[in-house]
Design brief:
Number of helices of chain A: 6
Order of helices and strands of chain A: EEEHHHEEHEEHH
Largest sheet of chain A: 4 strands, antiparallel
Helix content of chain A: 40-55%
Largest interface: A-B, 27 and 15 residues
Mean pLDDT of chain A: 91
Oligomer: heterodimer
Shape of chain B: elongated
Radius of gyration of chain A: 17 Å
Number of strands of chain A: 7
Low-confidence stretches of chain A: none
Number of helices of chain B: 5
Strand order of the largest sheet of chain A: 4-5-7-6
Chain lengths: 182, 206
């Protein structure tokens, strides 16, 4: 089996005469902004606006990752995460990886400059854009090193949020979601 | 006194004793008998106005010892008559009654009866120290002869012996390297998705 790889060639194009930056094969225009400015915006904006922004960022990344795979539905876990992590690295999101806790899918983002409230909708939107399916996400944990985002059904995400709000550890919340199933 | 005279006197005494032993007891009780005072005779201060009587011929054993200490009531009996037949009172020995020595007494303290019986039966194990020993004399005590001290903590005799070199002695338990330590409880995850979509479906099914 050929190890999956990410080809970053011409992923980002800087058109200096036009004063623009473009990303991906479709040449989507992107903007380089300081992270501090984005943080100020997230802190002052309402929750819905922050979630909309995160979903917008994730949608672009997921769509470009799916374009690299050709048929995302047949892609292995390693192949998909390789392309998704590549596109996320080009966008400066950090290091993306996947953890499987039983049947639960958890996306891990390390060294990300984004706050957790942006990362949770970003991950869900990226998967939705790649596979054309509605998914839900919840921020399990966030520290200075990594953030963990659960991708699951609406009900599971709601139960996980309630468990975390009650003080339950995120590992126990994941175990609670399984309810005896493995 | 010659030996013959002594023998004669002893034989006379023996004869009197035998004669008195043969007499009935009632007859002997009629004699001027012994008198045992309940308490010592008080001083004659209260009887100063009474006429002085001649001392009786009965010898009382005084309730006061020559040293002035009290003694229990003694018994005085009539002494055997002299050769002239006059009634005489014979002083008999006081019945010795063992008593506890007073605290201030200088008499030696005898051991307890049980201890004495044990000593008679089994013999004394070791000589018991004197009960009353003189108090220690005041003043400086003579110092004990100082033993020579060396840095090694021993005497000169010890230092002459060759030094013993100490070495650690390691003691380890017999642990087999091939022991099966790991004991896995439970089964490995049976869910092994082959594609990302399969994993996504499983997570959405939670």
């Amino acid at each position: 089996m050929v190890a999956p790889s990410f080809d970053p060639t011409h992923t980002v194009r800087f058109d200096l005469p036009q004063g623009s930056v473009r990303a991906g094969q479709d040449g989507d225009p992107v903007l380089l902004i300081p992270c501090a400015a984005l943080d100020d915006l997230v802190l002052s904006a309402p929750t819905e606006a922050v979630e909309a922004m995160g979903r917008a960022l994730g949608s672009a990344i997921g769509r470009r990752a799916a374009a690299r795979l050709g048929d995302p539905n047949s892609a292995s876990i390693e192949a998909f995460i390789t392309q998704l992590a590549g596109e996320g690295a080009v966008a400066g999101l950090g290091v993306l990886s996947i953890e499987r806790w039983g049947r639960a899918l958890v996306v891990v983002i390390e060294k990300s400059p984004l706050v957790g409230t942006l990362l949770a909708p970003l991950v869900a939107s990226a998967i939705e854009a790649a596979f054309g399916r509605k998914v839900w996400s919840a921020l399990l944990s966030r520290d200075e090193h990594a953030a963990r985002v659960l991708v699951a059904s609406e009900g599971a995400v709601e139960r996980a949020r309630e468990a975390l709000a009650s003080g339950m550890a995120w590992g126990q919340a994941l175990a609670m979601l399984h309810g005896g199933k493995q | 006194m010659t030996a013959g005279r002594t023998i004669a006197r002893l034989e006379a005494l023996l004869a009197r004793v035998r004669a008195r032993a043969a007499e009935p007891r009632a007859a002997r009780g009629a004699q001027p008998a012994s008198f045992v005072p309940d308490r010592p005779v008080e001083a004659a201060g209260e009887e100063d106005d009474q006429p002085t009587l001649p001392p009786p011929s009965i010898v009382y054993s005084s309730a006061l010892s020559p040293e002035g200490r009290e003694r229990p009531a003694a018994t005085a009996v009539a002494a055997p008559p002299e050769s002239d037949g006059a009634p005489e009172i014979e002083r008999v020995r006081e019945e010795e009654v063992e008593e506890e020595a007073p605290v201030s007494s200088r008499r030696p303290v005898v051991p307890e009866p049980e201890e004495r019986l044990a000593e008679l039966a089994f013999g004394a194990e070791e000589p018991s120290p004197p009960r009353h020993t003189p108090p220690p004399e005041s003043g400086r005590l003579p110092a004990a002869p100082a033993a020579q001290f060396e840095a090694s903590g021993g005497t000169n005799a010890d230092a002459e012996q060759p030094a013993i070199e100490l070495a650690p002695e390691a003691i380890r338990g017999p642990l087999a390297s091939g022991a099966q330590v790991v004991d896995v409880i439970g089964a490995a995850q049976r869910f092994a998705p082959s594609s990302f979509v399969e994993l996504l479906d499983a997570s959405l099914a939670l």
